[in-house]
Every structure is written in C-alpha cells, then in structure tokens.
Specification:
cell membrane; 5 strands; alpha+beta; MFS_sugar_transport-like; MHS family MFS transporter; Sugar_transporter_CS; 2 domains; Growth Hormone, Chain: A; globular
Amino acid sequence: MNEPNKQNSIFKVIGASSLGTLIEWYDFYIFGSLATIIGAKLFPADAGASALINTLAIFAAGFIVRPFGALVFGRLGDLIGRKYTFLLTLVLMGGSTFLIGLIPSYETIGYAAPILVLILRLVQGLALGGEYGGAATYVAEHAPKGKRGFFTSWIQTTATLGLFLSLGIIVLSKNIIGAEAFADWGWRIPFLLSILLVGVSIYIRLKMHESPMFTKLKTEGNISKNPLKESFNNKGNFKMVLLALFGATMGQGVIWYTGQFYAQSFIENTCKIDFNDSRYILLWGIAFATPFFVVFGSWSDKVGRKWIMLIGMLLGIIFYRPIYQLFLDKSDVTTWNTSAILKENAPIVTRHALHSEGDSIITSSSRVNLINGASFNVVSIDTVYADANKMIGHAQVVKDKVLPTSTFWLFVGLVFFQILLVTMVYGPIAAFLVELFPTKIRYTSMSLPYHVGNGVFGGLVPFVATLIASFAGSTPLSGLWYPIGIAALSFIIGAVYLSNKKDENVND
C-alpha cells in the first residue's frame, strides 16, 4: 500500500473509532453535567445539599465499576477481537443512557428512581471500561511506528469533545425550551438524543475491519487462551500494570477530572455562577485547549511520554489552590462595582407553612442588574412565628451570578489552563499504555490500570472533593487536597520508576 493510501486508511480508522468513543463519553458525562438538576428529581424536595452529594455518588458509581468492565471486555477483546468487543460496549452504553432519560422522578416512583438510575450508571461504567481500551488499542495497532503518540492522541480528544458535545446540547436545549421547562422535563432531552448518535456510530463501526496485528495473531494461532491469567499472573507484566497505574494513570485521572468536572461543579455550586455562564466558561476552555491533545501526543513521539505527563501533574499540584482561590475571590459580588446598578427588580415574595401551628418560611428573591452586564439574584429566607409575626431565623444567599465580561474571560483562561494540563497528561497516555504490553494481552493489560486510575481515583474527584468541603471546619478549597495528594504521589512514583522509552513491545 502506498503512503497516501496508508494515511487515508489510518484516518478512516481514527474517524470510525473516535466517533463511537466520543459518543460513549457524551453518554457518560451528560449525567455529571446535569447533577444538580437530576438530584432534585431523584431525591425528596427537602433533601437539600445531600441530594447533590447523593447524585455525585451515583455518578461516581459508574467510575468505580469501570475496572470490572476493563477486565470483562478486555478479556473478550483479546479473545474474539477489538472490533466486535467495542461494538458491544457502544450498544450497552447507548441503551443505558436512553433509559435514564425515561426513568420517572422521585415524586412518581419514590426511591426506585435513584436505584434504577444507579443500576444504569453501573452498566454505563462497565461499557466504558471496555470501550476506551479497545479504541486506543485498535488505533495504535493500525498506526505506523514512530507516530503512535500522534495518531492515538486523536482518540484522546474524544473524552473532552464528548463533554463539549454534552454541554453544548444541554445549553441549547435549555435555551430553546426555557429554564423552567428544562428543569422540569427538558433535562431528559440530551439522554434521549443519544440513541440517534449511537445508531450512526454502530452503522459506521459495522463497516470497520479487525486490527491487523490481532488478525495476524489469530491466523498464526497465537491468541491468548487466558488473557487475565497471562496479564496478572506473569510477574513482569503485572509489575508493568502496577507501574502504569500508580506512576501514570492515577495522577492523570485526578488531573483530568479536576480540570473539567470539579472545575464546573465548583464554579456552579460553590461560586454560585449562573447555569449558562458556568457551562459557557467550560465550553470556551475546552474549545481553546482541545488541539493540544494532538500537540502533546505528537511531541511525545519525539521526546518520550513520561515527562510530558509528569510535568502536567506537577503544574496541577502547584497551581490548583491559587486558581480556585481566584475563582472564589472574583465571584464575590462585594468585589464588583455594585454601586453601578442598572436596575433592581421588585422582590418576589412567597410564604410556605412550616408546620400545622402556623409558623412559616418567607422567601424574598430579587434580581440585581449592573451597568457592566453582570447580574445576580439576592434571596432572603426568613423563618417566623405565626403569633406576633416574630422572626426566628434569617439567611441571605447570592446566587445565579452572571459575571462581568472581564471576569468571565478570566475564568475561561483559568479553565483553559487546567484543561491544558489535562492535554499534557492525557494526550500521550494511550501510546504510553499500548507500548507497555504485548499484542495478545494488550486490551486486558492496558484497560485495567487505565480504568482504575481514571475510574476510581479520577472519577471520585467531584464526589470526594465536594464531600470533604462539606465537613465541619473545612474551607471551600479543602476538597482540592484529594487531587493534589494523588497527583503528588503519582508524580513521585512515575519520576522514580517509569521509563521514558518509546515504541516498546508494540509489535510483539
């Protein structure tokens, strides 16, 4: 095959693999992007902050089972082939996502709602556990030697682009049908739409051919008879699995989920930024940073994978706390020029009975609009006795903040920097993992450390960090010690024990 045909062939492989993987990430992440709204639908109305924490726990459950999916589907991929295994994972992921969009709310079926969603999240996690390893292995086994970092980095863009797609469809749906309708039933639209995307991807993947390396192994009768045993009972191979986990994917995972998911959660739930503003910030940050996946993946072909990934971790360790402190400082409305008020809407007052004796809660909400385009809601909550109308409790909350233009773009820049670190640790990782393991057990061997590092250590970042920040005596920045600590440990192990060699074992 001549060079232009080879290039054309590899880009077809990348396109077919990437589209399916992008859709699987889209399916997996729309849940996290809508955690606040979904929590209000899955749990009682008076659940308060625990609804968000419980919803993030359900979100995290999907990550925790990803290693089991890696074992199940990794074994299948090494036994029957890459193509049909990650075709199956796509069907499971798409079906589960579609069904989440159909599940009734807590008001209709009670606690059966969160239980059913949890089950479907577990299926999603199992499916994603098999998807990534298959796609990365499939592309790497088609890529020419010396360019595996470049070609596999296109697969790496799909996780971020899947998040970008999910945020885009969420914002578009909300703006078309309105905020109230979206919070009531419109949040289901992104889940239901996924079935169309999955259908297109299945059609494309059915036309794909098996990996040439796996086909060669199958023809020669050298396929592994027991991939799990050969991956984890072999002392040398198991050592590489552990090094890949603790020296690379564990740190890469927390950098990934801090820079994208925890950043969004923090901006929305801690800084109280408006729903649309928080998502626009992330969308712009993703759009500016995504090309760097390919930049760092390609660079790793020249200088090696190790130090690019480790420097990304180190920069996160150093800069996370200053970045998130800046988020807090710049979202504090007392630092805004609130004297330049364009208008303040008349407060909307509602009164709710607290109990049968007649005590009640009075809520007063008004929107303040500033000349520079910024705005925010001021909500006052008063608890009063029925007799003598005596107040017994008062609280005031500022929320749904629309940032001043200069502050908005500062937030975009801070998110961009975090996602730039994501591209450093994530761009080279597929080539790094593929090159650690021989072909006949590659799907199994690379999938497990990847999904433990990302699914367990990384996927738990939003839940664990939010939980830590809710403890008595904690500060809004306390949750950052979790990703910082994990990244620091991974950096030390990786710096001491990982090799910076390229193209190892990939043709075995």
